[in-house]
């Protein structure tokens, strides 16, 4: 799967010749535009819909990486709330006695 679909490459000069209105119209119609300078990509123009898809995919990949990292490092050991409280010198009762501010 490629990140961009229906990619059209344009030089900076050609993009300037087309004008912003036409470039935006092309992106709205689903074209992903890559602007090049000296044959090297320097910018991309995509529709807001496509940008949202890319942002959602990036968030999904971050979540997947976190799940994979946790599954690889999980020892299976579980700790109760009371054990955690004891490690910090508290009990459920001592927490209940702390005044609300």
List keywords for this structure.
101 residues, alpha+beta, three-stranded mixed sheet, 5 helices, 17% strand
Describe the structure.
With 101 residues, this protein is α+β, with helices and mostly antiparallel strands. 53% of the residues lie in helices and 17% in strands. A hairpin with a 2-residue loop joins strand 2 (32-37) and strand 3. The longest helix has 26 residues, at 48-73.
Strand order of the largest sheet: 1-2-3
Number of strands: 3
Oligomer: single chain
Q: Runs with pLDDT <50, length 5+?
A: none
Q: What is the CA-atom radius of gyration, in angstroms? A: 26 Å
Major sheet size, sense and barrel closure: 3 strands, mixed
Summing up helix and strand content along with how strands pair, one would put the structural category as: alpha+beta
Which band does the percent of strand residues land in?
Answer: 15-25%
Q: Topology, please?
A:
Elements: E1 7-11, H1 12-18, H2 20-28, E2 32-37, E3 40-45, H3 48-73, H4 81-87, H5 92-96
Parallel strand pairs: 1-2
Antiparallel strand pairs: 2-3
Structure in a nutshell:
With 101 residues, the chain is of the alpha+beta class. It has helices spanning 12-18, 20-28, 48-73, 81-87, 92-96; strands spanning 7-11, 32-37, 40-45.
């Amino acid at each position: 799967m490629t990140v961009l679909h229906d990619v059209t490459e344009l030089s900076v000069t050609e993009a300037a010749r087309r004008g912003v209105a036409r470039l935006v119209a092309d992106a709205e119609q689903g074209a992903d535009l890559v602007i090049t300078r000296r044959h090297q990509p320097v910018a991309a123009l995509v529709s807001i819909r496509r940008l949202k898809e890319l942002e959602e995919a990036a968030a999904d990949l971050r979540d997947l990486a976190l799940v994979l990292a946790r599954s690889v490092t999980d020892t299976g050991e579980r700790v109760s709330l009371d054990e955690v409280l004891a490690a910090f010198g508290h009990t459920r009762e001592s927490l209940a006695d702390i005044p609300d501010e």
